[in-house]
Amino acid sequence: MSIDAIKDRIPDYAKDLRLNLSSLANDVTLTPQQLAGTFVASALAARNDEVTSAIVAQFASTLSPEALTAAKSANAIMAMNNIYYRFVHMAGGEYSKMPAQLRMSVIAKPGVEKADFELWCLAVSVINGCDLCVTSHEKIVREALGASAVQTAARIAATVHAVAVILQGASALGD
């Protein structure tokens, strides 16, 4: 399956998503590796098998095996961190001063350029809605790659997530 197959399944009432997916898949703001990794990490975070399969099929050949693993790792580590740090932020108090005591070694050695990995962590954090993680990764990405890269990652995350939600709903409704 490819992105074109996914676009064909998007109902007409969500045609804006189809157009956004097309334009973002051809975006030149990011390097090919950054773009592909952002799509893959976002698809994994969106939790839709059909969307994930199509996006990985579309972009995997753009990524080295190490970069593909790093995109998967960004999703994995942020799936944990987004929940934990969202709790810390919501609960407040002493928790922000306590060590997380969660293993996060992949952040120090992701197997790709640090800026690329941070970009992918940002996209996953946008989807998972963790204010603390978005703020932290946005700052690093903005300093390393600029505000346009931050915005592009957020646009990819938003669009991939919306496509996953729409296709899940369309399937449930028989659309």
From TrEMBL:
Disulfide bonds join 130-133. Its EC number is 1.11.1.28. Residues 94-172 form the Carboxymuconolactone decarboxylase-like domain. It is an enzyme of class 1 (oxidoreductase). Keywords: Antioxidant, Disulfide bond, Oxidoreductase, Peroxidase, Redox-active center. SUPFAM superfamilies: AhpD-like. It comes from the Bacteria. One of its GO terms (molecular function) is peroxiredoxin activity. The keyword Ubl conjugation does not apply. One of its GO terms (biological process) is response to oxidative stress. It catalyses: N(6)-[(R)-dihydrolipoyl]-L-lysyl-[lipoyl-carrier protein] + a hydroperoxide = N(6)-[(R)-lipoyl]-L-lysyl-[lipoyl-carrier protein] + an alcohol + H2O. Belongs to the AhpD family. Antioxidant protein with alkyl hydroperoxidase activity. Required for the reduction of the AhpC active site cysteine residues and for the regeneration of the AhpC enzyme activity. This is Alkyl hydroperoxide reductase AhpD. It comes from Acetobacter pasteurianus NBRC 3278.
